[in-house]
Design a protein that fits this description.
19% strand, 5 helices, alpha/beta, Rossmann fold, globular
């Protein structure tokens, strides 16, 4: 995403990062939360974004959700300087494209999110830190 489209993101180090998991699928979000916590991220789960956007460094959102509009949600997160990771099923090409068009920093499949969360969060951390130096 081009610099200047969102609030500045502060540099982070593993163990110092807060992660919002935005997903109404409680089984999936609990699994992501447990995995992210094991990787040193302080993870919180919300099934929808209310009026107040939590103070976090990054957010993982489910592009298949029917509870929120991707573009509006990503814009709200970016306005608070929150790096966005988005996922959908590998056959949900339209939803994955919506995530890219909305400016998500990482767009990936559900399978990759489940099986390579460590790599995804490491990449997010690198991107957050590199955006600070831009």
């Amino acid at each position: 995403m081009a610099s200047g489209l969102h609030a500045p993101i502060r540099p982070v180090q593993n163990g110092d990062v807060k992660l919002l998991i935005l997903d109404e699928n409680l089984m999936w979000s609990a699994k992501l939360q447990k995995s992210a916590t094991a990787l040193g991220w302080a993870a919180i789960v919300l099934d929808e974004l209310g009026d107040e956007v939590p103070s976090v460094d990054a957010a993982i959102l489910n592009l298949s959700s029917r509870k929120y509009e991707t573009e509006e949600t990503v814009a709200r997160l970016h306005a608070k300087g929150i790096f966005t990771i988005a996922h959908a099923g590998h056959v949900e090409k339209e939803n994955l494209e919506k995530g890219r068009q909305a400016g998500c920093g990482i767009v990936t499949t559900n399978g990759a999110t489940a099986n390579k969360l460590d790599e995804i969060l490491a990449k997010a951390e690198r991107l957050i830190n590199s955006s600070e130096s831009d």
